[in-house]
# Entry
Amino acid sequence: MVLKKPNLSFWQILNMNVGFFGIQYSFGLQQSAVTPIYDFLGATPDQIPILHLAGPVTGLLVQPIVGALSDKTWHPKLGRRKPYFLIGALLCSFALIVFPFSASLWMAAGLLWILDAGNNTAMEPYRALIADRLNNNQQPLGFQMQSFFTGFGQVLANLSLFIFPFIFIGTTGSLPTWVYASFFFGALCSIASVLWSISKTKEIHPTDDELQKLKEKRDVFEPLLEIFSAIKDMPKVMWELALVYLFQWYALFCYWQNSSKSVALSVWNASPEDKLAYSEAVSWTGLVNGWYNVVTFLVAFSLVKFAKKFSPKKVHAFCLMLAAFGFLAFPHIQDKNLLFFAITGFGIGWASMMGIPYLMVVSDIPKERYGVYMGIINMMIVVPMILQTISFGFVLKHFLNNDPRHAITFAGVLLVISAFFTLLMKPKKISKTKFLTEKS
# Structure
């Protein structure tokens, strides 16, 4: 028998996901501001990938463990997933406040580990919360609501990189003063938005039998054993998604690490050594990246309708191709205003990446393992990132002439491959019987 879940109102689903806004503001700063900070602190181009190792490694370790723990958690006041939102937001806020005070490259790299641990702790249970609270009919809206807030949060993060340099002029310590303003505002957004969601959202109370099982004494290694067990039992469609993600997320890390330097070369003909011109390029890239996130939250909800009409995998493959075309054009553009047209394709692709893949696999996941499997999906994201941070410095130096423009082109090719493997996926279709049971 399928457990009946009541329909929630649009505003209930929105309030549930407001916390995702703060998490994604923080993630937007990681995408667009951390590499320039490394550049300001003296990093060489081939050092950049390995300096970003914190993100994928913490994701690999934190997300599946937090997922497994949240499956086995129940707090009388906070619930199952919300305690982890709160812990993650507090870690994020701490790291964002301290990050601008980095006096050296390795201090900044160390703080990135803390920042990413907080982001991952908060983000993973959010995916599981959608699966927990929403029935099959409303899950597409729930996941794409997260896509909407991804775009909204990252728009503000990138706009801060464009606007704050005009307001906060000069240098404080080793970094421009605008860096402090952007990161302090990010800390406020992170904790405030998560507290809003916690206060507005109720989780489904476990049954007496489930509570009894949660109270049973457990081995300290049980979360790890649960992860290995879940991987062993993983549905085939999740392995297919892992192959798609291998190329997709390797490509995205290539873009995020190299976009500012690519724009500096193609538009300003400048390198990070020319700090004035490079700061202008970083600021403009923040505006460009803000635009692709505007596109993301504008199209996020329309993708729900297309996914229902044409199937999620076809929609995702099409969106990946649009993103690929944008990346292939991006490094050849010399007019800074035309960059907005190229990056629009990635904005549509990013909207799909943040929600549609979860629709392709959620029907194959048993409800009692939502947390751990959402964590494993995020392992599929971070493993390609780890491979990228380890390998791409060598690739960039020996095959791409240390040219960030070539790195963006390389990312476009990888997205084409990812789209091809998306079309080969065979996700389960939700039966009409189950659908009607959950709607009634």
